[in-house]
Write a structure and sequence with these properties.
By secondary structure, the protein is α/β, with parallel strands linked by helices. It has a domain of 175 residues: Undecaprenyl pyrophosphate synthetase (3-Layer(aba) Sandwich), CATH 3.40.1180.10. 39% of the residues lie in helices and 13% in strands. It has a 6-stranded parallel β-sheet with strand order 3-4-2-1-5-6, with helices on both faces. α4 links the parallel β3 and β4. α1 packs across α2, α2 runs parallel beside α3 and α3 packs parallel to α4. It binds 3-methylbut-3-enyl trihydrogen diphosphate (2 copies) and magnesium ion. The site of one 3-methylbut-3-enyl trihydrogen diphosphate has 11 residues, from β2. The site of one 3-methylbut-3-enyl trihydrogen diphosphate (IPE) has 11 residues, from β2.
Length: 260
């Protein structure tokens, strides 16, 4: 579980020790979902253009994945680009696509070195060919890795995900490969992009907004939510640990009762 804790890493930022005080290492959330928000406002606050914030946000993701791996988190789902983000100016969208492409190229060695398995959720439709190629390459190169899973949401929308699942199930039902009464939660989940992943235990939203913005609508049914006003580029390992401490202080009931 604590694999990677004492691992030496090349080509990484300085490895400051994490302050694990107050953290129960036996109750680490398995899957953390992160809405990486606030890049634009972070840049604006410094008199810079919004894209500068996206660049900084990509660096934050690298740092947080490393820290998450060290503490034994199994899956990080990171919201990088939503189905609604196409509404932004084309220059910003193009910058984000180029950034994703560069990120996937530059990080591939680190993923391999640190046993990170990369997955993607979202629709490939509409993404630039180069981004699709880089995504396919990252998946192929890391598919046998057994460490932390970095699940990147690109052109992802929770409603679109549910809709594509419904359509495919309807087709399978019409074709007779599945009966209507066989459509259970478990079966439905196999049609979601997150097939094979556990549901997030904890959802983190930096940037101060208190909404879900179409992220993992089905999967977060019982996720604990933790938010902070800190913009994503300023989100540090310590914020991740704060979120985990808060998570560990919560009582998860899943609709039932907990006798204490
Ligand atoms: C999140 O930061 C990144 C993406 C949505 C691509 P924003 O770009 O939404 O930053 P703010 O929320 O405008 O500050
Ligand atoms: C959510 O942030 C999407 C990502 C972080 C990729 P947005 O900035 O798009 O969300 P809204 O528009 O504030 O709800
Ligand atoms: Mg935003």
């Amino acid at each position: 579980m604590f694999k990677g804790l004492f691992q030496t890493r090349k080509n990484t930022m300085p490895d400051t020790a994490l302050d694990l005080s107050g953290i129960d290492l036996n109750n680490i959330p398995q899957h953390i979902a992160i809405i990486m928000d606030g890049n634009g406002r972070w840049a604006k606050a410094q008199g810079k253009i919004r894209t500068y914030g996206h660049q900084a946000g990509a660096e934050t993701l690298k740092k947080i994945v490393r820290a998450a791996d060290k503490i034994g988190i199994k899956v990080i789902s990171a919201y990088a680009f939503s189905t609604e983000n196409w509404k932004r100016p084309v220059t910003e969208v193009n910058f984000i696509m180029e950034l994703l492409s560069r990120y996937l190229t530059n990080e591939i060695d680190e993923f391999k070195e640190n046993n990170v398995q990369v997955r993607f959720i979202g629709s490939q439709e509409g993404l630039p060919e180069i981004v699709r190629q880089k995504m396919a390459h990252a998946v192929a190169e890391t598919k046998d890795n057994t460490g932390i899973i970095l699940n990147l949401a690109i052109n992802y929308g929770g409603q679109a995900e549910i809709l594509q699942a419904v359509k495919r199930i309807a087709r399978d039902t019409a074709a007779g490969s599945i009966a209507v009464d066989e459509i259970t939660n478990e079966v439905f989940e196999r049609y979601l992009y997150t097939d094979g992943l556990p549901a997030p235990d904890l959802l983190i939203r930096p940037g101060g907004d208190l909404r879900i913005s179409n992220f993992l609508l089905w999967q977060i049914a019982y996720a604990e939510i933790w938010t902070t006003d800190v913009y994503w580029p300023d989100f540090s390992e310590e914020h991740l640990l704060q979120a985990i401490r808060a998570f560990q202080g919560r009582e998860r009931r899943f609709g039932g009762l907990v006798n204490k």
